[in-house]
Design a protein that fits this description.
about 550 residues; Methane Monooxygenase Hydroxylase, Chain G, domain 1; 23 helices
Length: about 550
Amino acid sequence: MMSVFTILGALGMFLYGMNLMSGGLQKAAGSKMRGFLTAMTSNPFKGVMTGVGITSVIQSSSATTVMTVGFVNAGLLTLSQAVGVIMGANIGTTITAWMVSLLGFKADIATFAVPLMALGFLFSLSKRDKRRHISELIIGFSLLFLGLSLMKGAVPDLRETPEVLAFIQNWTSYGFGSVLIFLLLGTILTLVLQSSSATMALTLIMVNMGWIPFEMGAAMVLGENIGTTITANIAAAVANANARRAAMAHTLFNVFGVIWALALFTPFLKLVGLTITWFGLPNPLEVNDGTSALYGVSMLHTLFNVINTCILIWFVPVIVKLSEKLIRERKRETEETIKLKFIDAGHLSTAELAVGQARNEVVHFAEISRRGVDFIRTAINATNDKEFEEIHERLVKYEEISDRIEYEIAQFLNALPEDSISEETRTETKRMYKIIGELESLGDSGESISRILSRRNSHGKTFTDEQKAKIETMLKAVDKAYGIMIDNLKAEKFEPLGLRLATDCEIEINDLRNNIREEEIHKIETDGSNYQSSVYYLDTISEIERMGDFIINISQALDE
């Protein structure tokens, strides 16, 4: 019983070490990794290399795939780009198997892991964020191999208990049926552990200890490739259609690979054996020992994903179309159901990278807010009470929508653990808090103008054609400011030109407001017969000018 608990504890240490190492790398890389992912995916081949590179570094295809799904959800990657990255992630994750095979079994890396933890502790004492993130990387690496070493030590030698060994090996005597049994075992283990790397480590231990032959280890690897797709599908379950399609593309890619690998199982194993001999290593099909099986399983994992990618990279458009057919677009949102568009998918496993989703959600919020300009225009020009009441209700509704979106984005940012993001990202999240506050105020302005117009109507007053024309001039200036502000929000790097253009718009709006107010006050002084209408008119102009203030505040926040 203690051996079972030790194995489970060691497995937990292995998984925790992998997550810690992955998280430390993500935080150390920060925005550089986001930029790398979005810049290096212009075609499927670059996408594959990007997936290989990132997964090789963070040692988790699940993390890369979930991150990719999140980026599709956030609009940072297209579906075609995502498919290439996911293919590369499958190749990149094979490095874990080789690292475990070469270091975890042939060298007692646990001997070096403990001193490395001391080094990691020293880095953790640094006041610099980057060094503390590197400390997580080092400690995570150490825990990963300590966990593997403990798992190897806790696994009993079944040669001393031939009855148990005979029971396990009995499952390997059903021919192709045994292949399917161990494929299912690999799938289930990966589903339970939510990590193909952990299942791969267990598979390598089983073949190294002689529990199962190379052929059954190969079947487990194929099962792991199916099980690992579940993580991305879980992450995408509440995301937008394109994110769910990216997860589906991952499933299609791996399932297709498993089908051809099963159909050509014997020739494929012979190819693995031949490749192994090219490197001067014993053929696992001819030499029945743990070492040859160990390298054979690692080589099969690599060849499977490389061959699958080489076949399917030419069919990315087909995979995209099939994913689109299988995952239909959800019903279009109405004004009554407007909600977050980009940050539905989970982010806590990749907290450092979640800021890209939040940034796109802020842009989405700004685009929703901009619709208020047209609603105000319609309310100003309404010709009867029924038309006005309809648009008044929409302005009130959009004010409620602004409140809700601000709250939900803030809630998302609050959920990001402070100790899991870099200082640069922390500064960006503070900036976003201010921006969403200003966008919510813009929603308040639209509702305030509708209240001014309601009071005007209740007193039987109207605006003259000249007043309407001047309000239209103000609204055009505000709409122009909105456009510049949204461009600034979308820019990867905020440029001084963007702030200058935004400032010019603010000056234009202020000048218009000042000129209109002076002209209207002069009219009141010379002819006060329409005084009450003038008050409502000037109140409307002032509120429109306040919208300009909120808009310039957003561009200025980007420059802080």
